[in-house]
Amino acid sequence: MILQWLSGCARFSLQELYLTGNQINGTLPDLSIFSALKTLDISENQLHGKIPESNKLPSLLESLSIRSNILEGGIPKSFGNACALRSLDMSNNSLSEEFPMIIHHLSGCARYSLEQLSLSMNQINGTLPDLSIFSSLRGLYLYGNKLNGEIPKDIKFPPQLEELDMQSNSLKVETLYQLDLSNNRFSEKISDCWSHFKSLSYLDLSHNNFSGRIPTSIGSLLNLQALLLRNNNLTNAIPFSLRNCTNLVMLDIAENKLSGLIPAWIGSELQELQFLSLGRNNFHGSLPLKFCYLSNILLLDLSLNNMSGQIPKCIKNFTSMTQKTSSRDYHGHSYFVKTSQFSGPQPYDLNALLMWKGSEQMFKNSVLLLLESIDLSSNHFSGEIPLEIENLFGLVSLNLSRNHLTGKIPSNIGKLTSLDFLDLSRNHLVGSIPLSLTQIDRLGMLDLSHNNLSGEIPTDNLDLCGPPLEKLCIDGKPAQEPIVKLPEDENLLFTREFYMSMAIGFVISFWGVFGSILINRSWRHAYFKFISNFSDAIYVMAAVKVFKWHHRG
């Protein structure tokens, strides 16, 4: 074989060898004799048979491609001891070993270096094992094999994984009800293959780098209760097929690049929705009136879009927000999905990321149910704040800031006694601050800045305490110490001027004294004579003091 012809002195110096697209046949020989080899490509040839277990790879080998040959069997355990191996491509062969065994054979030091593993178009069978041991793996390609069994609910993927392709296998996905691939580095488009996942109730692909459209086949998931696609790079409009997911409780597609009009069918067809997050996208147009059909809605986030028009008065139909709730109402509450008739319903956690008191925070399950919130901030909504908002007694957070709202603040807004957060800043509101705000004793953050409000600030808030008031809170201490912070530019200016003056003063004084001594010889002699006389005087004074002290003793 041609590799044997190169086994002379070239084996010590050869670093790259490309033999792609020839008629090379025979079995794969022991490659360890090529001690300097870093790249070997023998793809698209006629290598056949099993790779002997005794075969070893060069210790410096980084890339090995043997794709499109006729290799059989499996991968030798010695391949897993190639500590520098970064890319292994054995796709389009006739490998038939079980996938868990292949992973076991590669679990030597290669698991720390391997970045690309392609085993597509083989006869590999078996189930999906734990893949998290490959700490550097970015691409895993398994399509066109015979992988079988169910995808484990708690399957673990490599922490650096960006691309995963498992299409055209025999994996049983019909019974999979929960799939969480969030917080990875998956990129490219989301595969449009979801029609096979008939039982899927919870799908979380959030916090990745997916791009392209939301797959239309997700609309075939009739049991889907939670769809989380937050923080990706998804584009285009919300697919019409999602209107079929009538069991959705949570739809979170915030922080993407989605555009177009917000579909009216979200309100008319997805009436089970409790949590709807569409913030930080490029949606435009007005808020559809059919949104008012969302009687179960508890969280509505449309912030940071290009929405316009008026806030509809029919928001009074958000009946779940008209009822005050407490932690006792939802204590121990969980969300369940229907699995088989034998295993019964299975619980899952429902999470939501909320902008809460100036920072994003994660809330879960029963706590989430208590945080009834409307966030329409940073849009182009105009007109007056509808008076009907006064009837949403359960509201805990209301953010209408950074819009073009006009008119007065509803006079009875103080009826929203559950409010903890109220931000109406940066609008064009006029009139006085409603006296009814004094009825909200739990209000933790109120921002009415940058409007055209007038009149007096409401008084008679007898229960207020802490600075700048003289009355202290219950524990005798202020509820929160006031924070006085200079604007960044002022602080920077002060620091710069201070240190500049210090530096200039030091330079002038230093060179004013020592420069003169260095330049003028008579001054220099006088200076050192002064230092000598001064030190002698100190010495004599100290000696006299010591002598007197001894005599007194």
UniProtKB/TrEMBL annotation:
Broad class of where this protein is predominantly found: membrane
Keyword flag Ribosomal protein: no
InterPro entries reported in the protein's UniProt record: Leu-rich_rpt, LRR_dom_sf
Subcellular location as annotated: Cell membrane
UniProt KW Glycoprotein keyword: yes
UniProt keywords, alphabetically: Cell membrane, Glycoprotein, Leucine-rich repeat, Membrane, Repeat, Signal, Transmembrane, Transmembrane helix
Top-level taxon: Eukaryota
GO (cellular component) term, any one: plasma membrane
Segments crossing the lipid bilayer: 498-519
Protein name: Uncharacterized protein
